[in-house]
Amino acid sequence: MLKKREELIMRIGFFGAAGEVTGSCTLVETETARFLVDCGMFQGGPEARSKNLHALKFDFDVRAIDFVLLTHAHIDHSGLLPRLAVMGFRGPIYATPATIDLLHVLLPDSAFIQEKESEWQLRHRRRSGKGERGLPAPLYTVEQAKSSLKLLRPIGYRETLHAAETVSVKFHDAGHILGSAWLEVAVSEPGKTHALVFSGDLGMYDRPLLHNPEKVIPEADLLLVESTYGNRLHRPLAETEDEIVATFKRTRGERGNLIIPSFAVGRTQEIIYVLCDLVRRQRIEPIKIYVDSPMARAATQITFEHPQLLDAETHELIDWWRANQEKVNIEFVADVEHSKALNEIRSDAVIISASGMCEAGRIKYHLRQNLPRRECSILITGFQAAGTLGRRLVDGAHLVHIFGQPVPVRAHIHTVGGLSAHADQAALLDWLRGFHRAPGRTFLIHGEIEASTVFAKAIEDDLGWKNITLPHRGEFITL
Ligand SMILES: [Zn+2]
Fold first, then answer.
1. pTM of the model
2. Which of 56, 82, 133, 387 could form an SS bridge with 148, CB 3.0 to 4.6 Å?
3. By residue range, what is the domain housing residue 381?
4. Same domain membership, residue 457 and residue 411
């Protein structure tokens, strides 16, 4: 049945990060344009694989998408871009220059992990005499990931992008990770221009490295806002610093090593910042930091290549560090042999390594070496999903298995909660206060149901807004 014309003005489709925190992908259709905001991978949980396989199956050919707007480089926002390209999309993907630099590292790496996983499954099946039928293929190969990078088009903060005849876009600093943006989109239809705001992921205020999230434009007809931590408040950074100082001193006093599992992009650079700052303020003694992750090395390099994205405090700290490199000696470990040599170090080393949840990568070697020693410490600085090695350590396991071997846990395990790339409830509300009046409609995305529900209530109570919706995956809303 044909709908009335005024109902056809705009259609929003929620394809991911609706009622959950991964798989960000929103479709916007107007009379004259059709575009996606983000194209992320589903991560974690047993259903992620099948959700990724069945994602991007729209009721039209992906070649009919005019363009993609990408808020930031995190895989849960960008990880299906190569898949979109494999399915035939050839349009431009707009992102900030720093996001594009990070994607050149992250997307091929995501493909590489998938290829390895497939190879492992294939060997496993052959060994156990099973056939190869139904074997999960990678969502895309390294070659395909690299080829999709050619679709990326840089757009700076606050520049006006005429993405289509009727659609113009501005990217604003979201303060979440390097290059992250929230988007201001203007859609012109006969007689009216609609203002759409997409928050992407928002960062905390007054945190290491990045600028604060830019304040929003005063008015919007439609707002999509993340709600990852819409139900909680982060601990103050000062508390986290105190905990790091205490852990560092105890480990140094007992002549052990301090091992820090960390995500390569963002968190590693924040930890380097905090440690460097603590030495500068003479709260801890001079240190030697080994950053043992090729991706962390690349991400740190990219961070230094975009100095304008770093805040004034960070520039000051970098200047201090350049003049005091003997006090904070940072070594980026490139080759595997050198990484193995770190296993010989018995004391006083600070080793930052990936992956952040201790599931893969070089961190596993460092944990195998240092977990059995009670004079060593493991500092957990990020979220640890259920079922990961990192989570078992946080939960107080006395014995874990690494590379199939039992490893006793005698080292001290410390968790610090004050470093988060995501705004907490107070910071989200603060950002929303930038609107002079309530947006026509507000959709809460990128949050577990519980977090989004609590956040919706907070917005109603604190800001007096109405028309707040928690969309479901696969839902379309016509405006
Ligand atoms: Zn993110």
1. 0.93
2. 82
3. 237-415
4. no
